User: Fold these one by one.
Assistant:
Number 1:
Amino acid sequence: MGDWKTITVPVLSSDSKNIFPHTSERKRSPTSMNSQVLRSSLPSSKNMHSFFSAFCTEENIEQSISYIDRELTTLGFPSIYAESKGKELNLIAIINCMNELLALQHKNLRAQEEVEMQHLKLGSDMDHLQNCYAKLKEQLELSKREIVGLQERDRQLQSKNRNLHQLLKNEKDEVQKLQNIISSRATQYNHDMKRKEREYNKLKERLHQLVMNKKDKKLAMEVLNYVGRADGKRGAWRTDKTEARNEEEMYKVLLSDYEQRQKQLLLENAELKKVLQQMKKDIISLLPPQKQKLKERSEDGLVLSDQEEDIGDLNKENMWELSCETVREQLTNSIRKQWRMLKNHVEKLDNQVSRGHSGALNEKDVISREDHELETEKLELEIQQCKEMIKTQQQLLQQQLTCDDDTTLLLQDCYLLEERERLQEEWRLFREQKKNFEKERKSFTEAAIRLGLERKAFEEDRGAWLKHQFLSMTADCKSENVTTPSSDPDIRLMKSTSRQRKPPSMLSPTVSPEPCQISQYITQNSVASEKPAADNMPNLWVESDDKEETE
Amino acid sequence: ASCIQHRLVVRDASSLQILQLYTCLDQIQYIEWSSDSLFILCAMYKRGIVQVWSLEQPDWHCKIDEGSAGLVASCWSPDGRHILNTTEFHLRITVWSLCTKSVSYIKYPKACQQGVAFTKDGRYMAVAERRDCKDFISIFVCNNWQLLRHFDTETQDLFGIEWAPNGCVLAAWDTCLEYKVLLYSLDGRLLSSYCAYEWPLGVKSIAWSPSSQFLAIGSFDEKVRILNHVTWKKITELDHPATITNKKIIVYKEVEKSPTVDSERLSFLPTRALASSLFSTQSKYEVAQVPVSLQYIKPVADRANPKVGVGMLAFSADNCFLATKNDNIPNAVWIWDIRKLKLSVVLEQLCTIQYFQWDPCQPRLAVCTGSSRVYLWSPAGCIVVQVPGEGDFQIMSLSWHSSGNSMVLLSKDHFCVCYLEREEV
C-alpha cells in the first residue's frame, strides 16, 4: 500500500487534486492498523467512482494508458500495447494484467489479515504475560514479607531458647551448689556427731567405772536353786577346742545352706532343660508338615538331619551330667535357631497370605487363608496344651521329688489299669444296653407287623359284616337267619380279636362310645378307628339286633 | 500371762482360767516367756530388777539385781536359760546364766532399735556394737557365749540388724539419713550391699520372707524394694500411690453400718449390753469400685521422723503375701501377691492402722485400728469382728497364738482373747 501511495502522489499531482483527500486517507491507514485498513483497501463505491474518474478523463486517456503501461512493465507485467508500435491496446494483455493485479490484491489482503491476526494474538499474549508478571510480583512481595516475619519469629524463639538454656544452666549450677552445701554440711554434722559421740563415750566410760566400782556389793543374783540346762548337758569350759568346734559348726551350717540351694538350682535347671528339649521337639515336629516349597524342604531336610543328630546325642547322655558349658550353649543355641526358623516360616506364610490376597498366585504355592488360620489356631492350641503340660509336669515333679522312678512308674501303671478296668465296665454296660434295645426293637417290629395283619383282617371282617348288615337290612324275613350265622363269625371274630389283643400290651381297651355314635357309625358307614370299632362290635351287634327287632 | 501393776497373772490359753499368781517387788514393765514356756521373766526397769518365775515349781524364784547400772531392756536367750540385760545408757549387756549363776558382759553395745538379733534356730546371736565412732557386729555362739566373729560394718550409724530365717545371712541397715542395706554371711563376709538412692531419707522397715528368698525393704519414698537371695539385687519395686486405677485390684472399704434397732426390743428396759451395742457403730466391708483414691496425709516437712514411707512390713507364713502400710496413707493396708509381684488387695479402714499380724499357719491377716473391731483378711474375703462387751475396747495391738486358732487383742488396760473356729470339713 505504501508503494502505491508514493508512486501515485507525484505522478498524479497535476491531474487530480481530488486524489489528495483520498491519499491522505490512505496515508492514515498504515498508522492505524485497524479495520480502517480494510475499509481503505476496499474503498466505497462512491470514492471508487470519484477516484476512477479523477485518474483518467477523456483528455488524458493516452497519457494514462501509457502511464499504466509503464507501471505494469515496471511491475513485471507484459505491456498492454500490442506488439506493433502503434497505440493499439492489447485487450487480452490488459485483462490478464487486471486479473493478475486482482489476484495480487487478494493475496495481499490475505497476508494483511494474517498479520493482523498475529498482531492480535501477540497483543493478547502480551497482556496475559503482563498480568502474570504482575501477579508474580505480588506473590514475590508477599513471600518476602512472610520470610521477614518468619525470620523475626525465629529470632525471637532463638533468643527465648537461649534464655531458657541460660536459666537451665543457672538452675543446674544452683542445684550443684546446693548439693555441695548439703555434702559439706553433712560432713560437718558427721564430724560434730563424732566429736559429741567421743565425749559421750568418755562419759559412759566414766560412769561405767563408777558403776563397776560400786556394784560389787549390790550386784547379785539370788537363785533358789540352779536350773538344769534346757538340753540337759553340762556347761563346757572355754578352750581352743570349743572355739574350733564353734567355727566348724558355723561352717557346717553355711555349707548345708549352700548345698540345699545348689540342689534346688540343679533341680530347677534340670526341669528347665527338660522343658526346653520338649519345646525343641515340638518345634521340630511343627516345622516339616507346613513346608510347601521344595527349597525349604531341602533346607529342612538338612536341618532335620542335623537336629535329629542333636536330639539323639542329647537324649543319649544322662540329663544330670549335662552341666558343662558347651552342652548348655548347644541346647540353647539349637532352640534359638529353631525358634527363628519357625518365626521365619510363619512370617513367610503371612507374606504369602497377604500376597495371595492382593494378587493372583499359583494355588500350589499359597496356603489358603482358611488353612493358614486353621494352622495358627492349631498351633495356638498346641502351645496352650504344651504350657499346661509344662505346668502339670512342674507340679508333678515337685510332688514326686522324693519318689523313686519305680514308684512313679507303678503309680502310672496303676492309674492306667484303673482306667482300663473302668472302660471295660462301661463297654460291658453299653453292650448289654444295646442288646436290650435290639430286643425291644424286634418285639416292637413284630407287634407292628401283627398290628398290620390284624388291621387287614379287621377290615375284611368289617367289609363282610357290612355286607351282612346290608343283606340283613334288605331281606327282612331272613334277618334272624342271617344274624345267627353272622353272629358266629362275629363272635369268633371278637374272640380272635380279643385274643390277639392280649400280646400287644400297649393297646389298652378303650371305653365304649355313646349309642348315638354307634348309630352314626351305622348310618354313615364311616370308618372309625379299629379299637372302638372292634369294641363296638358287640354293642353294634346288640344294637343292630335291637334295631332289626324294632324294624 | 499378763501383768497388772506388780502382779503377774498366768492364765490358761484356752479357758483363760487363772493358773498362777505371782507378786513382784515393783511395777512390772516388761514380761517375756522363755522359749520352752517354763519360765517367765518380769523386768522392772525403775528398780533395775528382773524376777524370774517358774511355772512348774511355783516356789522357785530368782531375782537379778543390776544395781546402779540400771536396766533398760531385758530378754531371754533362745535356750531359755540365760537372760540378757541391757544396762542404762547402753553401757553393757550382761548375760546372766540360770544354770551356772555366771555372768558375762558384752561391752559397747549399740543403742539402736534392733541391736540384738537371734537366729531362728537359736544358735547364734548378733550384737551391734559401736567403738570409736565405728560400727561393729559381733556374732556369738549361744551355746557357750563364745565370740565367733567380729567385723566392722560400712555404715554411718547402724540402725538395726536382722537374721534371715535360714540363719545364714544377716541384714544390717543404716540410719534413715543414708540408704544402705548390708548383707553379711554367717561367717562375717560381706555378701552384698544395696543402696537405692542417695540423698532422700532411706530405710524405714525391713522384713525377711519366711523362706529367706526375699528381703523386703520399705523406705521413706513410699516404695518397697524386694531383693532376691541369689543375686541380692532388686527384683521389683512396689509403689504405694494414693489413687488406685488398676481394675484387677480389689479394694475393701470399711463403711459404717447404721445400727439396726428392733422395735420390739425398745419396749423392754435395755440391758447394758444392748445399750452399748446400740450406741457403738457397726461396720462392714464393701468392695469399692476402682478407681479409688485413698485418704492421703501430707507430711509435715520440718519435723524429724516424718510420717512418710512404708513403716510396717510383714510376710505371710506361706510366703505368698506381703502386707505393707504406707504412713502417708495411714488408713490402708496393702496386700501384695508375692508370686505375681503385684498388688492384689487394698483394705481401707475408717481409722489409722495401729498394727497388723499374719496368722502363723495360714494366709490370714488380722488388723487393728484402735477401734473396738478386729479385721480379718484372707484370700477368701475379709470380715469385721466386733468385740462384744461393754464400753469401748480400743484395740491397740494384737498377737496370734502359734497354732493360729486364737489371738490376743490388747487395749490400753484390758485384753481379750479371740478364738477362731475351724471350719468343719
Note: Residues 403-450 of chain A form one domain.
Number 2:
Amino acid sequence: MSNVTLVEQFNPLLRVDFELKNSFKLLTQINKDRALSMSFDNNLLTEVHGLEYVVGLGIPANLKYTKDHEWVSIEGDVATVGITHFAQKELGDIVYVEVETLDQTLDKDEVFGTVEAVKTVSDLFLPLSGEIIAFNDALESNPESVNADPYGAGWMIKIKISNLAEVEELLSTESSEIPTIEI
Amino acid sequence: MYPLKAAVEVIQLGRISYGRALQVQKLYVRRHLDSKDKLHNALLLCEHPPVYTIGIRQALYPFEEEQRLKLLGAEFFRSNRGGLITFHGPGQLVCYPILNLGCFKKSVRWYVCELERTVINLCRKYGIKAATSPNTGVWVGDNKICAIGIHCGRYITSHGLALNCNTDMGWFENIVPCGIVGKGVTSLSQELGRDVSIEESIPRLLETFSDQFDCTLHRGEYSNNE
C-alpha cells in the first residue's frame, strides 16, 4: 500500500433554491470538499481544498415564445398568451391593455390588442391562429400586474388553437436579447 | 468600423387635416412593413386645423364630451397612440417620425426619451430651459410646451410630437391636457415674448433631430403611388 486518500465533501454545504412570484427561479449553493492524500513512497502529505459557489437564474422553460417577446403556454388546444419579462421591462409601467378582439377568430401574426405604457402604444401580435376565447379582465383595473407578474397574473388572452402545426413554429427560447448568466 | 448613419426622409405636408395625416402615416408605416430593407424612415411635418385627439383609453371621454368639444369648432378624433386628450391646431408644429427602430435602438422607451431630448435641445437653442418630468412631454416649469404620444408595432413608430410655436392657448382651456390636472401649457412664443412661427422652428427641429438620433436628413416629396 503506497497511498492513502481521504476525501470529504459537502455537496452542497448550503443550498437555497427559491421561486419568485413572477416565476423566476434563483439558486445559490456552496460546495466544499477536501482531499487528504498520504503517499508512503516519499512520505508526502497533500491536502487539496475546494470551495465552489454556484449561482443560478431560471426562467419558465415550459413556455414557447414569439419573436415579438410574447410567451405562449399550451395545454391541449388552448394557448395562454402574455408578454415576457424582457418585454414588460422594455415598455416600462403599463397603464392600459386593450383587447377588443374577444370571441373573434384571427390568423397568426394579426394584431389582437394593444398595450399602453409611457405615452406609447404597442401592438400585440397573435402567436397562433385561432379564436380568442378569454381576456384577463383583471388587467382593466390592474394593468401593472403585467409588469409585476408577466408570466402569472399578467396573462393576457387565451386562444383556442385552430392549427396545431403552428405550435412547432414557435421559439423554444426567447430570442437572443435576453441576458444569460453563466458561471 | 462605424455603422452607417440611418437616413431619414423629411416630408413637409403643410396644413392638412388630422384624419388625412393618419392616412399618410398608415401609408408610410405600410412601406416599412412591406419591405425587408431599412430604407423607409420618414419624418412627416405638418400643421392641423383645430382638432382634439384622444388615445386608446377612450372610456374617459364619452360621447357628451366629444359633442361638447365639437361644438367649440374643433374636430374630434380617436387615435391609436399613447396618452390622453390633447389639442392640435394652427401655430403648432406637429412632427410624426415614421421610423424603423431597428435602424436606431430597438427600445420604445429609449425612443420616447430621445424625442424628449430632441425638443429640450431645441428649446435650449432658443434659450428656454425645458425639462422632462414624471409626466411625459417636455415642460417649462409647470407648463407643457410639447406633447408626445406614439404608437409602435414591430418596432415601426407612428404618431409623434406636437410643439406649441404660436398656438392659440385658449383651445387648451377646454380640456385637461393629457389628463394632468393642475398643470398648464405654454408655447415658444409665450416663453420668448415674441412671435415664433412654425416656419422658424422647423429648421431648428430638424437640426436637433439629426443630432440626437445621429442620422442624415434629406428632403423628400409626399407621393402616394405605391
Note: Residues 3-60 of chain A form one domain.
